[in-house]
Write a structure and sequence with these properties.
Helix content is 22%, strand content 26%. With 179 residues, it is α/β, with parallel strands linked by helices.
């Protein structure tokens, strides 16, 4: 029996000149995310991982002032009124020593329910990452400019990355089923 080979991920790269550009790209990403999405965010300290999450959440109605780095709490859960699945999880695993420490964080509960999960420093738990996910790498180009590379792994994530359009219409939250 032949072994299953994962398809190559769909990859798209965007250059953003400033935080306004990052906010626009984050809103575009929010438009294409499915009901259940796991987003692994990589980049150096200060690259803008939390800022990107802040702008994704702002696109769906979360006050950006409520989105802070979960470095010390490790995992923050945000309620999103009007979103059918109602929650976004934001984890910063910088202080984690590895996969063995995940059980102490409430990880299984955090990722079990429907919703979006954003994980900073995913390389700390590489063995525990789901195969169906979005990998977003943020590279610092200048004091304000960034390059964001999106990789959609597996079918649903790959299709969403292919559909990513920063010039698209504003996000609309529906209380009904999502396609």
């Amino acid at each position: 029996m032949p072994s299953r080979t994962d398809p190559e991920p769909t990859i798209r790269t965007f250059l953003v000149p400033d935080e306004a550009g990052l906010a626009g790209l984050a809103a575009a990403f929010a438009r294409v995310l499915p009901r259940r999405a796991f987003v692994a965010l990589s980049g150096d300290l200060g690259a803008g991982k939390t800022t990107f999450v802040k702008w994704v959440m702002a696109a769906v109605g979360v006050d950006p002032a409520d989105v802070v780095s979960p470095t010390f709490g490790l995992i923050h859960e945000h309620a999103v009124p009007g979103m059918p699945w109602g929650r976004i999880v934001h984890a910063d695993l910088y202080r984690l020593g590895g996969v063995a420490e995940l059980s102490e964080t409430g990880w299984d509960d955090a990722i079990a329910a429907e919703g979006w999960v954003f994980v900073e420093w995913p390389e700390r738990i590489a063995a525990a990452l789901p195969t169906e996910r979005f990998d977003v790498e943020i590279t610092v180009d200048s004091p304000f400019g960034r390059t964001l590379t999106f990789r959609g792994r597996e079918e649903t994530a790959a299709a969403a990355v292919a559909a990513l359009d920063p010039a698209g219409p504003p996000i609309r939250i529906s209380s009904g089923p999502c396609d």
